[in-house]
Prior knowledge:
Helix content is 39%, strand content 20%. The chain is of the alpha/beta class. The radius of gyration is 18 Å and the shape is globular.
Amino acid sequence: xxxxxxxxxxxxxxxxxxxxxxxxxxxxxxxxxxxxxxxxxxxxxxxxxxxxxxxxxxxxxxxxxxxxxxxxxxxxxxxxxxxxxxxxxxxxxxxxxxxxxxxxxxxxxxxxxxxxxxxxxxxxxxxxxxxxxxxxxxxxxxxxxxxxxxxxxxxxxxxxxxxxxxxxxxxxxxxxxxxxxxxxxxxxxxxxxxxxxxxxxxxxxxxxxxxxxxxxxxxxxxxxxxxxxxxxxxxxxxxxxxxxxxxxxxxxxxxxxxxxxxxxxxxxxxxxxxxxxxxxxxxxxxxx
Length: 288
């Protein structure tokens, strides 16, 4: 059996860590001969760091499926973006202070320093200066973004895409202004060969059309000779839907977006309650 785990909101708790309970459950699954895979929007380096901290070794489908890496760090599939297509949209976002965005390469995440400073100022606003529901969303999302280990801050984002050696795999944009986010989504949607997903209602994630968690997972299953009917997936966000569409058994977290809970085979407890471990116990008890 191949078991694919999303990271943020699924395997990782609110502190951005793999709990001992989830770690031990993964080890038990591996000891029984199952292949446990990480399927994440994070870069490979960030995902591998989390695994290393928990003393785990797993294959990784990273960057929403744009890169597929075996446990020994062998890259078996790579689907980058074409820089010349996306630079006009990136340049437009540069001019919009309310639009925070990140550019992902295989092993790094690039952020313009001024954009980060603006986010930090938003977090520090006093009560009443920003609606409480937006304050909560902002803290949650910013906390998640700043948990990434492999972040490089640049004065101007042009420094990133102007270098031939920088291969871009994913772009993430975030804003509390959903109209701006919608406009950004529209600009990227007009470009051929792209897919736009989200891990939250206040962000968008841009990848090559052939880079989804579902396609990345299918490539990895084929590499191991595992039929998709024998693939279990666990997730919580919209960008997990592509792997829900291809897997034989789908587990949604209690904290998952409604569309995942409506289109799954089992709902486990939340990511703060060792939901991955609880789901694996359910699966290995013969409940599927």
